[in-house]
Design brief:
Helix content of chain B: 25-40%
Strand content of chain B: 15-25%
Number of strands of chain B: 12
Number of helices of chain A: 11
Distance between the termini of chain B: 18 Å
CATH architecture of chain B: 3-Layer(aba) Sandwich
Shape of chain B: globular
Largest interface: A-B, 44 and 42 residues
CATH class of chain B: Alpha Beta
Number of helices of chain B: 11
Low-confidence stretches of chain B: none
Number of domains of chain B: 1
Strand content of chain A: 15-25%
Oligomer: heterodimer
CATH superfamily of chain B: P-loop containing nucleotide triphosphate hydrolases
Largest sheet of chain B: 8 strands, mixed
Low-confidence stretches of chain A: 1-5
Distance between the termini of chain A: 20 Å
Shape of chain A: globular
Strand order of the largest sheet of chain A: 7-8-9-3-10-11-13-12
Number of strands of chain A: 13
Structural class of chain B: alpha/beta
Largest sheet of chain A: 8 strands, mixed
Mean pLDDT of chain A: 87
Amino acid sequence: MSEKTNSTILSIKDLSVRFSLRGRVLHAIRGLSLDVHRGESLAIVGESGCGKSVLNKNLIGLLDSNGFIDDGSIRYYGMEKDESNPDLYGEDENGTYADLVRFKKEKDWLRVRGREICMILQDPMTSLNPLKTIGAQIGEAIRLHQGLRGAALKEAVLSIMRDVRIDNPERRYKQYPHEFSGGMRQRVVIAIAIACRPKILICDEPTTALDVTIQAQVLYLLKELKQKYNLTVIFITHDLGVVANIADRVAVMYAGDIVELGMAEEIFYDPRHPYTWALLSSLPQLGVKGEELFSIQGTPPNLFTPVHGDAFAPRNPQALKIDFVERPPYFEVSPTHKARTWLLDPRAPKVEPPKIIQKLNSEGGASV
Amino acid sequence: MTQTNAEPLLRVRDLKVTFGSKRNPFTAVGGVSFDIFKGETFGLVGESGSGKTTIGRAIIRIHPTAGGSIEFKGQRINGKIDKALDREVTRKIQMIFQDPMASLNERAKVDYIVSEGLYNIGHISAEERQQKVHRALSAVGLLPEFASRFPHEFSGGQRQRIGIARALVMEPEFIIADEPISALDVSIRAQVLNLLSKLQKERGLTYLFISHDLSVMRFICDRIAVIHKGLLVELAECEKLFAHPLHPYTRALLSAIPQPDPVRERSKKLEIYDPSVHDYSVDKPVWAELEPGHFVLGNNKELEEYRRRLS
């Protein structure tokens, strides 16, 4: 991210997404803004139901049919202008962009989905076709996106299988998904995604269904591929412990909004939002044996009803009065680190982060 | 180890479990031995397909055993046993399952889900049954009113609590928790872990905690056994295992634990276990106790090497 200009590949502004459900309206994304930089890996962390998957489904036009975007823009800068459809595109100081909010037709999306932005889903057991061989499934993506045929196609498939470290690709090429273990299937899914040559790769909880050892290997693989194919990676997870390894930047999401955003070091060593504190403190890795592990009380807010003030306030024992009244703005901690909490207001009382986090800070911060 | 002289609650010796036909059996568990003492939390860690769940299920008599013995309080409980003992075992040993979304009957009310086991242990009055259900629900931090609701009305964490209440209502001494938190969100994991340790303190329960995640194990377990491909490869007290892991597979597992610390994580070297490092063609591996309470699987040459590393 050396050059300031042209470094943004995706810019989300004031995005608001609602769902209509049985006559009621659920406000899933509440005015969210986020910039994704070219070549970075960004982790979006939050509990289930905080809207992190909804956010990313917007980027590839897979929002459920009862959901709609009612405000905001998603500008994607990686794409050539399609002259036959000029009103989907625009221009600003970062260059030509495609406004993904204006993409409505399936035909338009086909230009984005896969070849520009690609997604890896959580469960490798369900995202592969059980009736087709692995080679055919990876080959399909390459044929569509790179137009290869015959022997050249097979060679490309084998080379990509080697890239995702599937041993013995010649034999594996002819096998079916059920002959693969969970970790190997996830590698196949990654291979299919990479075969489309996307610029942005979205990984929606790619390792949740996997064992710890396999998880570590898949994360390592993703890191390697990011280098090799020059990818921008958006990584969705509920486990802060997982992202320390892979993320350059971390966005913490709560109730349809990003409450804290910063470089990984800033989020782990100097978190500012009480929700980030709570997420970190509840990790068993940081717990002390024999003592109670910190747990967040209560449940996430009901998004059918409008949220007043800070959405996390009802679950935050140290919430200030103003937290229940007015929604906090972003306060800047450093040029790369901002948080939505009144605690950062100069008038706020001083609240110390929990001990566990201070400990993490003194251990890790020392080596920074 | 203070418990070495204590009588183990559960004694497993050379347990074998096979699936498939007699002629062409698949060995899921190939002869494991361990003891679980009263009041401790014994962890069983391994990757999927390593046989850790099979061991749990063999103990609770779901899978028939192909060899070896399982003794619960000095009585053999595997194979053919008489009816009274069978009944006692089902009562004293209970299980908590992995996925609270799948393990509760969608069409039954919580009241029935929790009390189903009580119907099997002879006649008790409706009133007494209801009392027991209410006590179990309050013990896991749910309101007794919840008894008349259906599972879909609860969140994942609450459902797992119902699963725990279902085990508690039988007043067990020994609970097999099969990945009780893998399907839960991080924030809810903490609640369930706290609940499990609270119940253990209050009721003197003994747990067999099955998981693939060593970071959780370190937090909750007293002793940990590492299993790989149906064989135990290492067993030690929790802290000892983390401080001096000997078997290469244990080391691979430890290196895979994600740490919430970007600087250390990025410089971390991942160890990948390759079973071909063992040369067992001539020198067969044995299950040996290298220091009190620390067992490891290896052949003579490897054991020598491990001993040197310990001293």
